[in-house]
Amino acid sequence: MSILSNSVYNNMAINEIIERFLQRRLSRTIYIKYNYVIMSKNNPSEYFSITNYPEEWAKIYTSNDYQYIDPVIITALKEILPFSWDHNIKDNLNLNSFNIFSLSKNYEIEHGYTFVIHDHKNNLVSLSMSVNKNNVGIFEDYIKTNKEKIQMLLTTLHHKITCLYIENNNNQTIKHRLI
After folding, report:
1. Is the sign of the CA dihedral 162, 163, 169, 170 positive or negative?
2. CATH number at residue 69
3. Which helix (H) or strand (E) holds 36?
4. Which end of the chain is more exposed for a tag (fewer CB within 10 A), N or C?
5. Which regions form coiled coils (predicted)?
6. Distance between CA atoms of 22 and 73, rounded to whole angstroms?
7. Full domain range(s) for residue 117
8. What is the total count of domains within the chain?
9. Per-residue pLDDT reduced to its tens digit, 116-127
10. What DSSP letter does each residue of 78-112 carry, written as one string?
């Protein structure tokens, strides 16, 4: 598990609560790799992620600021509905730049499904999920059966993290006023 933050979402205790919440609610029938992201649309360098993608991939992704060129993120910025993706998504966007999938396939991240929210603070919020190629059929059935539930999970998850950070900030403000 990796929690990566270059944003205001930097309280590890809160982030671990969110991580456990997410883990408890995803499929128990197949191993799903996921990446929960909050990214400022005004400043994409403000990027927050809770992921169980391989740690090496998560570090490569964030240290190279791949959120600027990731076709999944670029698509999510334009969508309000969940969407499936694979290496062909780059072609659909007419991107001639670096092919991120040539690297991500080394970590068995080649196809998946992304759920999207555009929140009131102008953030892109997404939950991307993928499985290894041996479980694609089961995964597609899981998505088809649970699409609405997963979208609601993302909405609930984002509400939960937002409330926890507001509560934490209010408590910090109150503590500072008492000093």
Report:
1. positive
2. 3.30.450.80
3. strand 33-40
4. C
5. none
6. 20
7. 2-178
8. 1
9. 999 999 999 999
10. H-SS-EEEETTHHHHTT--S--THHHHGGGT-SEE
